[in-house]
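#struct-queue
[09:14] JT: dropping the first one here, sequence first, then the structure tokens:
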Amino acid sequence: MSDLTWTNSTRKLSDLVPWTRNPRQIKDADAARLAESLDQFGQIHAIAIGPGGEIYDGHQRGNVWAACDRYGPEYEVDVRVASRPLTEAEREKLVIYLHSGATGSWDWDSLSSWDAGTLKGWGLDEGQLRGWNDDAANLALMIDAETYAPFGDTSTDRDGQGFGSPWGQVKSSENSKVIIGSIESRLPGDVIETLRQCLDTAFELNGTPVYETLEAVIVVGVRAVESRDR
């Protein structure tokens, strides 16, 4: 049983303290939809914070709503307050769990019956596809993370593709070139072979970019690497 408990409360957005190491980010179109969601539905999810107002979950909501003219930094939001501060290791684990490691995935068969134009307007569009491509390439680089610069380094853009990693270092490495969707990466040969052997059984890898199944590709890739490292 965890010693951590959470209580409901409210805070002004100006009282919240962002985490300088937060690895999450948001694009302008998504930020506009985030503001629109508050207009239409109100605040559904509370922002998770520590005793001192440090944000554990909800950075994008806090940033977008504080910058929005109709809300602003004095806007009061619902929060869940932790009974004690989280360690850096706990914060790292929590942000991954909440946004990737312990979440569901889309059932594309079910979504196929929804109106495609409406879904695009809500954000399931080409921008989302590019984001999945970026995520797939980022994950590939993270497989041997000790080989690369620390995760979250956005010092160099990937040749205008909006890729949040030090592309200059990756591009000059001696690793082999790999194309994932529209994103070019460099990976060690043994990692490429591990991924290829596993992915060949699940997807067509004939040079055609994988689109609807990008999330599945990421899951398969992770499992392949986990199996290799056991």
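[09:21] JT: and here's the second one, same format:
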Amino acid sequence: MSFRVTATDGAARTGVLSTAHGDVPTPAFMPVGTKATVKSVDPDELRALGATIVLGNSYHLHFRPGVDVIAALGGLHRFMGWDGPILTDSGGFQVFSLRHTILRADDEGVTFRSVYDGEAASFTPESVAQIQAQLGSDIAMCLDAVPPADARHEALEDAVRVTTLWAARQRSVEQAPGQLVFGIAQGGTDVELRSRSIAALAPAVKSRRNRRLCRLNRRWPSSSCWLTRWRR
């Protein structure tokens, strides 16, 4: 994993993230291809517009058309005709933002009703890692517990605890070759909680380069995501 800071200005920074399918200057505008397509824009047009990375949504791709179908067709890059970097989210945000569909959420994972057919389904750190490995994205997001915007401090603290627990479990699952992993800091707008969340994720970092990246993110604790590639 390669990430280098290219410039700083106070609390702001720019950098370059290297992935298996190319470099991404940061910060970056990331077009959302929820169902493996940026609606009304083809890949050539995305390149012409300056896009360097595209987001795919694991929740929706898991249900339609299914990760087995995408894997059989050569993975997400071939499926959507995009040869640049792809980030896939874990699907957790979709589950927690559709709170009326949640049946149970605990340390094991979250059980919910699919928005497509109402059938019960579950996401765990292990299952979302496997989903994203089959998709073959360049960056996979960890499953995280996402409290509502008006959550009390106790709920934010518990989200930090659960997210850390889930991240450690996701580390144990094999990723796709070259796949990076985003560990997500929780804590809402509480800077102390967000810093604590980043610090709790740090022990999972094994390489010297990743430890450096973690230290960089401690300097910018308001950042929503903490990037690392976990190594065995």
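[09:30] RK: nice, looked through the second one.
[09:31] RK: Residues 191 and 222 are 7 Å apart (CA to CA).
[09:31] JT: good to know. The chain has one domain: 14-228.
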